[in-house]
Automatic annotation (TrEMBL):
Its main location: membrane. Residues 1230-1250 are annotated as: Disordered. The gene is clcD. The lineage of its organism: Eukaryota, Metazoa, Cnidaria, Anthozoa, Hexacorallia. The chain crosses the membrane at residues 59-80, 100-125, 216-239, 313-331, 352-373, 457-485, 522-545, 552-569. Pfam families: CBS, CD36, Voltage_CLC. This is Chloride channel protein.
Amino acid sequence: MSVLLHDHSGDCATRSSVVDNRKDSDINDQLPDKNISDDSAVYKNWLKQQPSRLDWDRWVMMGMIGFSVGFIGFLMHQLIDVISEVKWDKAAEFIEDHDFGLAWIWVIGYSVLFVIASSVPVVYYRPSAGGSGIPELIGFLNGTVVRHIFNVKTMVVKLFSCVFAVGAGLPIGPEGPMIHLGSLVGAGLSQFKSQTLKFKLPFFERFRNTEDRRNFISAGAAAGVASAFGAPVGGLLFSMEEVSSFWNMKLSWQTFFACMVSTFTTDLFNSAFEGFKYQGDFGLFKAEKNILFQISHGIGLNILVFIPTVILGIMGGLLGAVFTFLNLKIARFRRLWIAKIKSKQWKNIGKVSEPVLIMIITGTASVFLPAAFPCTSFECSFSSEGFRKKCLTDAQHPLHTERDVQNYTCPAFDTVTINGTQYTNSSYNEVATLLFVTGEKAIHHLFSRDTAYELGYASLCSVLVIYFLLACWSAGTAISSGLVVPMLFIGGTYGRIIGRAMVDMFGFHSTGYWAWMDPGAFALIGAASFFGGVSRLTMSLTVIMMEITNDIQFLLPIMVAIMVAKWVGDFATHPLYHALLELKCIPFLDSEPVILHEGSKAINLELFRAGDAMFSPAIVVHKVESVSRLTHLLLDTPHGGYPVVTKTDADHEVFSGLISRALGAKGEQAVAWIHSIIDSKLVIKPSSPIYPQWRSPTVPVLMQFFVFNVENPMEMKQGSRPCVSQKGPYSYRVYQTKENITWNSNSTVSYNKFTKYVFDVDSSCSSCDPRTDNVTLPNIPLVILSQVSKKYPGASLIFSMIFAHFKEDFFRVNTVEELLWGYKDPVFEYFADLKRKYHLSFIPDIDPKFRMMENNTYDGVTTTYTGASDISRAAVWTQWKGRSDVGLWNSPWANMLNGSDGMQFPPQTSTEDILYAFYVQLCRSMSFVFDSHTKIHSVNTLRFTYPEELWQNASVNPANTGFCPNGCFPSGILDASVCKGPSASSVPAIVASHPHFYQGDPSLVNNVEGLNPVKEEHGTVFDIEPNFGLHLHLSLRLQLNLNIEHVKFLVQMAGVKEVILPIMYFNNTVTVDASSAHKMKSVLIAMKAVPFVSVTNEIVVLLSREDIFSSRENLSLPEEELHTNRLDYCQMHQGYYPDAERLNAQLERYAGESRFQEMYIDLSPYVNHSAPTVQETFSLHRTYIIFRTLGLRHLTVVDKRNRVRGIITRKDLMGFQMEERIHKCLHNSHEAQEMQSTSSSSGHRPSVEA
């Protein structure tokens, strides 16, 4: 088990939280809701109008919830039974005829159809309906809001997805989804309104607050358990023990009433219907029908039963931990695998395909696995040799075999009755008895009494392994599924194995001292142990097991097994549902925090203060605050609430209450509002926050040059393969400025970008000096002119003589600086003089100075969209050098101006997007596709890189034909010669590629010795923050190569083999510093906070109403003389859904116009004056308990004079955050002690000022 204790997939229970620091940013997607009502003036005014101390309507609502949940439970079970019975009845007919092929086709086809119908709505329509929903429910009732889990669409998808999946025969159960459905009913019915269905009824309006809604959700979840198991007491205890974090005695009575009504409703309708067919027994509650796994009779216990019970408890704890471990491993592997798929369509297909694959495996095993096992005779059987005497006992319940076991292909003959005992010469298949039925019926067989020899070791062990793995795999797939039935099945199977072993060792005893050794009884204990080992439930599980079996005599063994399983499981892992909270990144505050120091030492939080965990300084607001400041707080800070202060006579600002920033909108409208805010910050305009960086980036931009040196020039001239070595990096700081900026009327802007390179010693290699470092390379001007000569017959001979005249050799030694920024070439200078003196038009334009790079140059006039009319087009090029296309390539597609300059991409970038950037150096657009998820300075980013097809030869990718002006090169080579215009350089002598020919044709690497292409070092990557579309890290790598071709009569190149030889490559790298990244993250946190909360005192609501703005002078008048409007409680809480663009425009206007600096809002009526506070010296442990018990979002920390010192949020109390602050506190304390010790030993007193 050591692997479980040290693997994060198991999430060792000694960790302080179910959330670790790697999920920091994901946590912000699940923000806390509060569970107590506010105490503002508008709330009190509203409260006065409500009925006082009347609870009849609360009881009515609980009854309505119970009835609704019970009826849904009835519908679910009836539908599941109908679907499963049709499947197995027809399959049995085929099996009886020994037509296995048709049986398999029927089972697979029928089941897969329903699995697809189960999975598709979850994947494409409502992902929040997937799984059991219990972790999300636990998180919500702990104080966290998870989007869409209480939506009517989720409810519909949840119901039918569960029905179809369970009915199809997947190894899952309906109980978990039933709990979620119950909470959905509680959440929706209690409010009597629906945003999705667009209605709001004037009933039960007083329940429209967070506290009552939470209580009704808890009751609905309990009613779901009661309906699913027929266990009203178990439902109450389950909600109290596992689901709810906040509870009181009054809620217990009301929840119990809801559970009672729910169980009654389900049992009442089930009594009359079976498969929706009326049975005529309406109101007749039969034990075998209403008790889920009715035990036929009880048996006496013996103290010795606790020995195997403890063994079963240990097995339950260990196997439960393994189940949790494997389930999390599979879930993380699934998430990683899905993330690697770049197409959204294929992602969804992959999600749907997984449960389909599980169903195919399950169906195949159900049909064919029983064939591998022989037929088994009934316990009470007869043959030609006579009647089997073993079943004849003196007990009231003789040893027997159940009559509803599955024959499969085994013969079924005659049955006779002698003295009340039935004998048969039929036989049955043990594996089919467990797999050829629904999970619930299989559990009935496992729990059956006096059937000691009905199931053997081979069948039980085989089914246990297969079902364990398939159930572990199924949980977490894209369907609505529960785990209760699989847990009971798995536990019952190994419990039955232990029971069978006891019978084989000590014999079967129907009466007397040893009668307790019944495999069915041990199956019950095993089921309880595994259920407890996975879920770690205790009280509720014990009661549920009693209520679903009616076996009160085994209460003590079940309790012992559950407790042992819990102890063993807690030693290894978190409970499954709590581990899933971490996997889903739902911030959950456990009942007791566990903080570790130095990896293993537990810290007592009573020894620390609230001030050690608080965020300080807290931003405060005054009771009368300017519109301008409130707007800036909303747009520029990440906080979800602000302490409100007032001034005392002593001019101290003391705490008066709390006001929230949160927006009342939910779902898509709130998300649209967030996107609108982000979009406004990304529009290119002088007032935009992005404009300074757009015009002249201050983020350090480095251009790192790596040059290649030919180590064997003489051998290469004689035809050998070139051998190169790499030098560098030679780093240059890049300074870019957009000049001559012109704002056009069509939402575009024109400019000319100036670029300058300055050598940076610090980021270069220690021995690198471009002025003195030499490199040996082929004479690049000679190679260029050699290719020019191929255009003119006989020119190569003339060029050869000219080269000889100037004593130009095939190799040349230059400094790195000369190679990069230029040197005068005598041959180039000679041809330039000829053209200038004699105006020879056939001589191309030649610059006497050859250079690989340009410095202090302009890119040419560029026109881009500003994004004002369409933010997705921000920074996208529309013209370059006066053209709307490139006009240099061979096809319209190749000539398109696609994308930006690579510094900015569309906001809300997703993994399915293809990004484009235009590169002036290559005169073409380049595409980028998603590669992986990354983090830069703890900010989540998407990594994009070149797609492989971008570099492929036209024979492999015909779309690249347009980029072959001089014929196509091997894959991995880009010809950018046309970019040089009509000059000597326009021949394909210099071509581009990835460094070291990464992603190129293997021949490119094989032809040059000394290359080693590696993705991490030679690939191009953009790490983009997807919400803003801005890159936090960039490594744009490009290699320039010399295309050496054979030219006749050019003696300088005689003997040189044709080869594409690397000259140099550059790495244009940009990394945003940590402070900028954290600022971006804070803005994201602030905006992501908006859509996940529904709270009181909303600053957004106040700012949306200009009619409540007033001057400070007016607000200083007595109340009766005020000339300003006030919002009442209903206006604050009627579900304000602002138009995103209008609201954002409002806020931008408030922030920009000076008149709003003189406009104020009186916040007094909206401040929550009962917001709890703690003093900074208050115990941190007790602070945690208060925060969790009250379900707070914020807790203000004050000093003894009630002055605000800081604020504590849920994130501050999460384990990883608290560990970091506690460790810092301990470190500072240790340093202080050392300083004091040093000071004392030196004979000096510590400085009072210090």
